[in-house]
Design a protein that fits this description.
By secondary structure, the protein is of the alpha/beta class. 52% of the residues lie in helices and 9% in strands.
C-alpha cells in the first residue's frame, strides 16, 4: 500500500506514523538530464508495511523530515545510496547519519558485486521487477500509475533484504568489514564535491606540457564555477576535448577559437572572452608539473599479476575481487614501486584490507625487479 504525501499536513501525519520506527527504507527519484545539480522530485519511505511517497514539489517545510532521517538512532536502508545521499543533501539539506546499503552488504556477503536493485531482488526473492520507468519524467505532475507503482516497489523489498543480508554478515563475521565500507560511502559523496583536480581526469591531459596543463586547470575551474552558476552540465558549457585543445593552443584572440572541435559559434559568443581571460591569467599561476605518462608494458604486466593474485585471494575468502582493490589503487602502488618508493593507499594500510590485500600485493612486488 502506498500513501501519497503532497502537503505539510500529510507530511506531519506521516512523521507521526513513523516516529517510533527504528528501521526505515528510503529511496529518491530525481532528474539530472540538463542540469548540473540533481532535481529531487520524490522521496519514498517505507516502514516495511506501508510506503509513503513524499511529493517534494508540493511540500513546503522539511524540518520534521530532516529530524526523522538524520536521527542517528534510526537505521535507513538504501540500495546504492551515494546518489541518494547527494540528492537529499543538495535538495533538502538532509544528511542521513546511520545507513545500511544493501548493495554494499550484498558485496561483502559475497552475493554479488555492485548488483542493481532489480537484479538483487530477483536473486534473493526470484521476483522480476519492471524497470522501464527508471528514466521517466519524475518532475511531471500528476505521475502515472506506473510511475507510482515503480516508486513504491523501489523500497518494497529493502526491509527483507536488510534482514537477509544482515544475518549473512553476522554469520560470516563481516559486520566490521561492512561498517568500514559504509563509512567509505560518506567519504565518496564528500569527494565528489572536490573538483580542484578535475583537470587530471581529462583523457589525454598527460600529453600537455607544464604551461598548457596550468591553463587546463584554470579552464576546468572556470567551467566548474560557470556550470554551477548556470545549473548546466559541464559539457553544456564547454566540452572536455575543447578545453584540452584550448589549453594546447593557448589562443590570445577570439578568432583563434574558431576551428576547435565542438567549440561552436554560440559557445564562443557566450564564453569566448572568459576562456581567453583564463588562458591569459594562467601565466601568473605557478606552473603545474606534467602528469605521469601511461604505464609502460612491463609495469602494466605487474598490475596484471597483482590482479591475478587478488583473484586468487578473493576466491579463497569468498569475496568479490572488485572489493579488494581498484584499478586506481593498483596503478598508484605499482607506479610508486617502479620509482623505488612504494606508497600504499590509506585503505590498504588500515582496516580489514591491511591484513589481507596488502600482504598479497607485497608478495607480488617482492618477486619483481623494476
Amino acid at each position: 500500500m502506498s500513501i501519497w504525501v503532497d502537503s505539510d499536513e500529510k507530511l506531519n501525519q506521516m512523521l507521526n506514523a513513523l516516529s517510533d520506527q527504528d528501521l526505515l527504507a528510503v529511496d529518491t527519484e530525481f532528474i539530472r538530464t540538463n542540469t548540473f545539480f540533481p532535481k529531487i522530485a520524490l522521496i519514498q519511505i517505507s516502514d516495511g508495511k506501508e510506503c509513503f511517497l513524499v511529493d517534494v514539489l508540493a511540500v513546503s517545510h522539511y524540518d520534521g523530515l530532516k529530524r526523522l532521517l538524520e536521527d542517528s538512532d534510526r537505521t535507513l536502508i538504501f540500495h546504492a545510496c551515494a546518489e541518494d545521499l547527494e540528492v537529499l543533501e543538495h535538495g533538502l539539506n538532509i544528511v542521513p547519519k546511520n545507513i545500511f546499503d544493501t548493495q554494499i552488504a550484498a558485496g561483502i556477503a559475497n552475493v554479488g558485486y555492485s548488483m542493481g536493485y532489480a537484479r538483487l531482488v530477483q536473486h534473493l526473492f526470484d521476483v522480476e521487477l519492471d524497470k522501464q520507468e527508471t528514466r521517466s519524467d519524475w518532475l511531471a505532475r500528476p505521475l502515472t500509475e506506473r510511475q507510482i507503482e515503480y516508486a513504491a516497489l523501489d523500497v518494497a523489498y529493502l526491509h527483507a533484504m536488510h534482514e537477509i543480508l544482515d544475518k549473512m554478515l553476522t554469520d560470516q563475521a563481516r559486520q566490521l568489514w561492512f561498517e568500514e565500507e559504509r563509512a567509505a560511502v560518506y567519504a565518496l559523496v564528500s569527494d565528489r564535491k572536490n573538483t580542484q583536480n578535475y583537470h587530471r581526469k581529462l583523457k589525454g591531459a598527460w600529453r600537455l606540457n607544464s604551461d598548457s596543463l596550468t591553463v587546463l586547470k584554470r579552464l576546468c575551474d572556470w567551467r566548474e564555477t560557470t556550470a554551477r552558476s548556470l545549473d548546466k552540465p559541464r559539457s553544456h558549457v564547454v566540452k572536455d576535448n575543447s578545453l584540452l585543445e584550448i589549453a594546447k593552443r593557448m589562443p590570445a584572440l577570439v578568432a583563434e577559437l574558431h576551428g576547435i572541435d565542438d567549440l561552436y559559434g554560440g559557445t564562443i559568443k557566450r564564453h569566448g572572452s572568459a576562456l581567453l581571460s583564463e588562458v591569459a591569467a594562467a601565466v601568473q599561476d605557478e606552473p603545474l608539473p606534467r602528469l605521469p605518462e601511461p604505464l609502460s608494458k612491463s609495469v602494466s604486466a605487474v598490475m596484471k599479476t597483482m590482479r591475478v593474485a587478488l583473484t586468487g585471494l578473493a576466491e579463497g575468502i569468498e569475496l568479490p575481487q572488485e572489493f579488494l582493490s581498484n584499478k586506481k589503487e593498483l596503478e598508484s602502488i605499482v607506479r610508486s614501486a617502479s620509482q623505488g618508493n612504494c606508497v600504499w593507499p590509506q585503505r590498504l594500510n588500515d582496516g580489514w584490507r591491511g591484513g589481507l590485500v596488502k600482504p598479497a600485493l607485497e608478495g607480488v612486488l617482492a618477486e619483481v625487479k623494476f
